[in-house]
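Field reference: sequence -> structure
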Amino acid sequence: KTVQLCLRVPDVDAWYAWAEANKVAGLTKMFDSDELGIRAFAMNDPEGYQIEVQTARPGH
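Structure field:
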C-alpha cells in the first residue's frame, strides 16, 4: 500500500517490546537515523498498511 502512518512516542523501546511480545506482522528491526534524529521501527497493521513508530533523539 502507498500510505505509511508515523507515530511519535515518548518510549519507542517499550512499544518495540510490546510489538515483539505480540508477534506483530511485518515487524522490522529497531534502527537509528542520525540524519532524521530518530530511533524507530516499522510494523504492519491488520489491513497491510505500514506503521512507523519513532522517538526523537535528544537534540532533535
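Note: The chain has a mean pLDDT of 94.
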